[in-house]
User: Which sequence fits this backbone?
């Protein structure tokens, strides 16, 4: 659709709001019957890569030189790694750096993909592969607020150098504070919508939007609407900022 040059998408040095009307598809090496919408990359200032893979049945992702996290948004994929792991919507996988694997769509699928070079720590063993299903992960209220539930998809162990969570806000729920922290975020809106404060700006955001928040970017979210708002959020974690 023609929007006469208007969009909600914005990019600054501290954050990005990327709305579906501005998505451009690109092939990546090794992908077959699939395409990628790149959301975050080092060229933006991010220490990780995040993209949405749109896959036809039988399509595959290419290899990666980094750690890889997959979260199935729609359809189903098979992750071949020491056997076969079938993931439906809400299924996810963590694949350590250097662990060979093949990701094949079993039906038309959309998959959120996060890749990050592993930051080793002396004396700490690297984490192994991990597979899960969001529906089976217990949620916790954030700062005692039952209207804001967090599910931690990656085990809470210091071996992992990043976290991926889902956060679900009942209508009207909001973050209790404007956060400012060293960790950066990649955020994919999964449902509902609301208002996101990023830096000194406020944005209307809705399901399908992507947000990158750089280090120390002031951030706050309040859910608006009659249905819950939910997002998938990445952060670097468990490492010294030095
Ligand atoms: O984990 C977080 O830092 C999270 N509360 N940030 C956010 O939702 N913007
Ligand atoms: Mn945060």
Assistant:
């Amino acid at each position: 659709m023609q929007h006469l040059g208007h969009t909600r998408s914005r990019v600054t040095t501290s954050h990005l709001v990327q709305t579906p009307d501005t998505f451009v598809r690109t092939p990546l090496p090794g992908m077959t019957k699939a395409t990628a919408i790149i959301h975050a990359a080092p060229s933006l200032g991010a220490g990780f890569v995040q993209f949405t893979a749109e896959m036809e049945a039988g399509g595959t992702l290419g290899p990666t030189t980094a750690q890889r996290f997959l979260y199935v948004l729609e359809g189903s994929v098979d992750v071949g790694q020491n056997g076969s792991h079938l993931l439906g919507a809400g299924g996810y996988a963590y694949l350590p750096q250097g662990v060979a694997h093949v990701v094949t769509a079993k039906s038309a699928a959309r998959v959120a993909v996060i890749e990050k070079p592993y930051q080793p720590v002396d004396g700490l063993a690297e984490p192994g592969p991990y597979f899960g299903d969001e529906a089976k992960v217990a949620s916790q209220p954030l700062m005692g607020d039952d209207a804001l539930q967090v599910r931690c998809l990656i085990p809470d162990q210091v071996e992992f150098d990043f976290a991926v969570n889902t956060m679900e806000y009942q209508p009207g729920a909001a973050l209790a504070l404007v956060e400012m922290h060293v960790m950066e975020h990649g955020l994919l809106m999964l449902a509902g919508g609301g208002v996101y404060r990023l830096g000194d700006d406020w944005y209307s955001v809705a399901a399908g939007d992507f947000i990158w928040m750089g280090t120390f970017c002031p951030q706050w979210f309040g859910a608006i609407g009659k249905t819950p708002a939910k997002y998938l959020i990445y952060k670097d974690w468990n490492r010294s900022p030095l």
Q: What stands out?
A: The CA atoms of residues 57 and 107 lie 4 Å apart. The chain is about 0% helix and 50% strand. Residues 179, 181, 185, 219 surround manganese (II) ion (ligand 2) (CB under 6 Å).
